[in-house]
């Protein structure tokens, strides 16, 4: 294994300590991804430099000129506290002709804009629910979509603004939920036809040659009566609620080989249609009739050791150090199409 000089980019407030000793679990949870990546890279023998970035790109150029990294391990999820600027940091790395891990800037732009992403998927005949966008400040209008629908932010991630009330069954509740997203999330809203079924994720690794990891599923074993099995913010982040509602995740079971193969092919098609690189995670719905829908595509999924990407990788026989090393190798090998 080639030892490399690696500069880890993360938010200024998330620079991890050298050790977890003396920290409470809630404190560790804030920077667990950054700590896991840095600690693993060092254990693999790489020369690692951590650089915090928050509202200025100059630190990136300084570390490029001073440390001269072989590759940047990019963990920046936002810039100036704006997730929509995430792709522009990667664009800056590309302008500097620097190698970096994760997705290219165009892929991030396309997947963060959920409506544009869905338009591309539909163009390529990749099944995704029908949808409508409701811009902030736009006129209220009727839609020909079928109810029920689920309403969410058009570009925010991590289920921000999603709750049980996000699924609506009539025009009045649709209008109320759109206004909620505008007011409380501060973004345009997107409404899509709700697909009843199983909540699956599929992780994909690669640049040109793609590898799909085992299909993962979000289980809802003890939901309160009347609740729908959707990945709300509470279901994702509230540990107490997860315990009460029996929410956990793991390898998807009872899926026949033909459907598994179809899901893997669908994942690769979506990955290529969007021009992604490095790694990504697709959120899917498996309907009772066997149809599979791509709900969202996350081109910058969390690479913490206990998240879906890493756990499904481990199920495929790729342990966490091997996954991190593979991500580094993909970043070091990737070049934007068309560049010499």
Characterise this structure:
The model has no long low-confidence stretch (mean pLDDT 92). 36% of the residues lie in helices and 21% in strands. It has 3 domains: 5-100, no CATH class; 130-193, Dna Ligase, domain 1 (2-Layer Sandwich), CATH 3.30.1490; 197-333, 2-Layer Sandwich (D-amino Acid Aminotransferase, Chain A, domain 1). The protein contains 12 helices and 13 strands. It is α+β, with helices and mostly antiparallel strands and 340 residues long. The longest helix has 17 residues, at 257-273. The two termini are 26 Å apart. It has helices at residues 25-30, 32-43, 58-66, 86-95, 105-112, 114-123, 171-185, 233-237, 239-245, 257-273, 308-315, 320-333; strands spanning 5-11, 47-53, 71-74, 131-134, 149-153, 167-168, 189-193, 198-206, 210-212, 216-220, 247-251, 279-286, 292-298.
